[in-house]
Amino acid sequence: MRAELEIIKQWIKPGSHLLDLGCGQGELLSYLAEHKDISGYGLEINSEDISACIKAGVNVIQQDLNSGLTNFSDNSFDVVLMTQALQTVRRPDMVLDEMLRVGKESIITFPNFGHWRARGYLAFRGKMPVSKFLPYTWYNTPNIHFCTFNDFEKLCRQKNIHILERTVVDSQHRDHWWVRLWPNMLGEIAIYRVTK
Amino acid sequence: MPATIPEDSVGLVEPQTLHFDQPLALACGRTLPCYDLVVETYGELNADASNAVLICHALSGHHHVAGYHSMDDRKPGWWDSAVGPGKPIDTNHFFVVGLNNLGGCHGSTGPSSINPETGDLYGPDFPMVTVKDWVVSQALLADRLGINCWAAIVGGSLGGMQAIQWSIDYPERLKHCLAIASASKLSAQNIAFNEVARQAISKDPGFHQGRYREQGTIPKRGLMLARMVGHITYLSEDSMGDKFGRDLRKGKLSYDFDADFEVESYLRYQGEVFSESFDANSYLLMTKALDYYDPASDCDDDLSQALSPAKCQFLVVSFTTDWRFAPQRSREIVNALVAARKSVDYAEIEAPQGHDAFLIPIPRYMDVFNAYMGRVLSTIPALEVDNAS
Predict the structure, then answer these.
(1) Quick check: ipTM above 0.90?
(2) Pick among B330, B333, B335, B338 to test the A interface (most A CBs inside 10 A)
(3) What pTM value is reported for the model?
(4) Taking CB atoms and an 8 Å cutoff, what residues of chain B touch A39?
């Protein structure tokens, strides 16, 4: 988490107005408020996480991402963020459209299903991958739309979404030279900065 | 009756009456020459008067928010679940003020008071009061109590409307606004329910154009009906189902028009109790104040614009089965605050109890309430502990 925050921090201009989708306990917004003097809101549906945000002084709004962002007007945020939640929404493509409607740009992070370990798990064991990082089995996982980096980038091309920056890291959010050589095989998490 | 006072209660409390001599100009164009406000306070005001919390009451509420007036009281104040030592509005840390609003019938100047200009009861001549007027009178009360800026103003339902109005009219005088199960304006359906209540009262033969007291009577049936209709709308279908189902009072149908079902006798009882404790003219006034409230109407129906003067932080809370002040109404407030870039937290509490949920200590609700009040507390200096002894 820490390393991911560091990477995202570099992409946020001081004083930005942000919307964080699936903000959890508000770590990212707290961190950016401390270091970048940002304003904004987190959206969350988990009740414990909402209480934790309120306690921490993070502005949190209870809202289900699957119902859209229709209550926010066009370009009302500098950046709309979504860390590790794209694969959990019912229609990631529509959420992506909405993010780039209400925000001038978006930062998205998600796990890579094309990582060699996931490929190996499915190829050799014939089962959906279960790992320390993705500990769920197929029937109870909140991750209902896994994709690979290549899948995501193809979707961006189809929607004319420009990828401004991409950082690919391992599950500890470390950046390795060999990951950069073959990201879709060796990278575990990607952090994208995109715009329309 | 409490055999002993519970530890998390503010204990035995006493209301006090404050008299205001300065005339109060009202939104309706009329002026109250002078008036009384009845208040109760709990906890201690700190040295710089920064720990004060104002509780605004809803339609049938009053100044008696928490604790007991005597050991013979059947029930504590109306929001005892939220106010007391260790409760969300923690009287170990906060100085809490509850009042009865103008136009009410629990001691503050209202239709059952004497009009000093005529020497007679005000009755139906009491001027129409609005949420804005109440907020002005509450600000004058704050002056009297030496409170320049409230740590928080808290209200449910109609009380939430007052808290919101404070943030617009006196942005410098509150740090936090908590609007619970509230709305920025009533819907047509909501106004319709209030109109049924008013018609029930004013068409009662005992109403006498509001001069019932001079006739030695009250419009009891009208008040009962008004409360029965209201009460139904404060509960959800599920909560009524859980509480009463189709249970029969005598175990079998009576084949007459007496109350067969438990829910019928419950409503009759609630109506009966209410009709004996609430003034009909006050009820008419309070429901009108609800209907009239719409701060956006001053700003081309742009609520975000109306809220733009606010400087405080907001907590908005709604309850899933509340259909009188539905979650959608709270979301309208939240969306307007977001558009105005104000600090706001919003929680939608899963609760079967309907509108009444805001008075019930539902664990997740109390969790959110505690978390937020903890945040309010974190910015004010602690009460000085008396170490003299």
Answers:
(1) yes
(2) B338
(3) 0.94
(4) 341
